[in-house]
Specification:
single chain, alpha+beta, TIM Barrel, Immunoglobulin-like, 6-stranded antiparallel β-sheet, 4-stranded parallel β-sheet, 10 helices
Length: 388
């Protein structure tokens, strides 16, 4: 699977992957090789298993991927390594962290990701205090060995890494994890993105680590929701977004066909859109000074988001459904040129604004058709920028 998968993701423009060294579903290699010579004993790593990990890490590095590497997946569900993590004890866990850190110190494309779909506090009956100390020892062991310096954490849903690890010195990259109200009453992505973007202390770069999956079993997980959560994250201050497709996750039967499902193709087109602008300079319009009307209901699935570049020469708007919006062009530098972008084909179409009072301009999004999506992006560019 490795080469075919990596080559496809690279060709479609993906730049980051999540990989579990001690995985939640597959506790051994396809040929039956176990990760440890003594089952579950972190002090007895099996060289054959880690030779395989080495090879995958090298394949990914050769293709330029950032690897979000989970050393020990403690899991949300039935399968995980949480019992073994607890039973090995702090000393063995820290030594295992040093082992991994030294072995993979040559790879500078690693973002170590502690945990794995679970918060550090609360757990086994025999371990009511949770896994915080063991996870902290694992992270400290990784750092002691040198190598990659980026550390984040994968928590449970409706949380963020810094919220669960507020005092851990190793954490230097934050992330958010939420689905949506139709799924277990989770708040929408933009609500969590706003919260982390507005953080007043220990401010760290933040990205969307997980939300709805393509072809997932939960409610509301359609192609449009996958696009919404991406734009809700990136236009509300997140520095990145991870996409998941149900059968690709875990290498389930039909994973190869899933590589070309609409979700992956949407991500490819959206990346091409963001490649056209200096997206890292976009500042979220959280107080609606730019998008003055037509933003929908805060906390609802129709909520529109906007962002303006620091130099005031680029503005991007995402509308989850077609509507009329009013924009204060006085927030931008000079005269502007605007285009609508269709997520279904990645193409632009132009439309002329209707002048309102003063500097406020009205735009009507194209009506949805069989070739134009009901959700749409508006891109405004200052003529100063276009002339450069």
């Amino acid at each position: 699977m490795s080469k075919d998968y990596l080559n496809d993701r690279k060709a479609k423009g993906f730049n980051t992957l999540i990989v579990n060294i001690l995985d939640d579903t597959w506790k051994q290699l396809a040929d039956g090789t176990q990760p440890f010579l003594t089952s579950g004993d972190f002090s007895s790593p099996n060289e054959k298993n880690f030779d395989h990990v080495d090879a995958v890490m090298q394949l990914a590095a050769d293709r330029g991927f950032l690897m979000m590497t989970v050393p020990v997946y403690i899991g949300c569900c039935q399968y995980s390594w949480k019992e073994e993590l607890y039973e090995n004890g702090p000393a063995k866990v820290r030594a295992f962290g040093r082992f991994l850190g030294k072995r993979y110190s040559k790879f500078q494309n690693i973002l170590w990701t502690i945990g794995g779909d679970r918060n550090p506090d609360g757990g086994l009956a025999q371990n009511p205090g949770g896994y915080r100390e063991a996870l902290n020892q694992l992270a400290l062991g990784l750092k002691e060995a040198g190598g990659a310096e980026l550390f984040s954490a994968h928590t449970a849903r409706t949380s963020s890494a810094i919220e669960q690890y507020p005092r851990e010195s190793w954490l230097n990259v934050n992330n958010i994890y939420t689905y949506h109200p139709e799924e277990n009453f989770d708040p929408h992505v933009f609500i969590w993105a706003d919260k982390e973007y507005g953080r007043k202390s220990r401010v760290l770069p933040s990205f969307l680590i997980e939300s709805s999956y393509e072809n997932g079993v939960r409610k509301g997980q359609d192609d449009q929701m996958l696009r919404r959560q991406l734009f809700w994250a990136l236009l509300r201050g997140a520095c990145g977004h991870l996409f998941g497709s149900d059968k690709i996750w875990g290498g389930q039967r039909g994973w190869k066909e899933s590589l070309n499902l609409p979700g992956s193709l949407d991500m490819q087109r959206i990346k091409a859109l963001f490649d056209q602008v200096e997206w890292w300079t976009l500042v979220p319009d959280t107080d609606n000074q730019l998008l003055r009307w037509g933003y929908g209901g805060f906390g609802k699935a129709d909520y529109a988001v906007a962002a303006l570049s620091k130099d005031r020469q680029i503005a991007m708007f995402y509308l989850p459904c077609s509507r009329r919006i009013e924009v204060d062009l006085g927030q931008m530098e000079g005269a502007t040129t605007g285009r609508w972008w269709n997520p279904l084909d990645g193409k632009f179409t132009t439309s002329e604004p209707k002048k309102l009072e003063g500097r406020v301009v009205s735009f009507q999004a194209p009506a949805p058709t069989n070739i134009f999506s009901s959700d749409v992006v508006r891109l405004l560019e200052s003529n100063v920028r276009i002339a450069k």
